């Protein structure tokens, strides 16, 4: 007998409010889609307690040198890749401490790879190749929470002692129960049924924005609301580094430029140099305090 079809998940259901969407004027379609996007953002608020738990359990692992890994298929995988790829330039998070498990491999970032999301063996192999372990954190995304690749990645990562976080927009998602921590943003049906690149995708991106940024704050890579670990790799960013340094210390442009030159255009040690430390002392202080400029300044000033 043929296998009966599965009932659609909440994210795949048809919403009758949009049954005549294709007959609406463009202005009405745009308004409806915007309202839907805003509801996707609002759905994330219910996930904040779970995200707080993720941060609490992830930070000690990352402080011990663990890696941040992302897993997903299709839209969810591409959203995950976007978040992870931005960590290096924004927070100087090492590229070798960011892992991507994308169904279908790198090629799937730019075009669909048929059948990749069903390949459990590929997910298991990817986890093994990357040697995910006890200090690592896996963020696994699937809007429906049923994707075989993503669920297999979670199961394999947990077996190796990795903290596995499942992120979904479906309250009945198996992924939420199979992960160590389940993060739910219940977004419901889409304006275009099943097109989870819409509000479900927005909710997933918001979750990753909140989570990865809060982790970087906890790792000392933000100070007074400034991205003080930013890589100053071009003229625009070097000017931004100078502005940050002047904002944080009150130094004039010339003194700020000298401090940045002495520290390889790195803002955090440059702040300490302007506070009277040598470049070597600044690096040692930051290493002692796990990269926290606030703690390093406090020690230096005897606080």
UniProtKB/TrEMBL annotation:
Keywords recorded for this protein, A-Z: Carbohydrate metabolism, Lyase
PROSITE patterns referenced in this protein's UniProt entry, alphabetically: GCKR, SIS
Pfam families xrefs: GKRP_SIS_N
SIS domain ranges (all copies): 58-221
Superkingdom assignment: Bacteria
NCBIfam families from the UniProt entry: PRK05441.1, PRK12570.1
Protein name: N-acetylmuramic acid 6-phosphate etherase
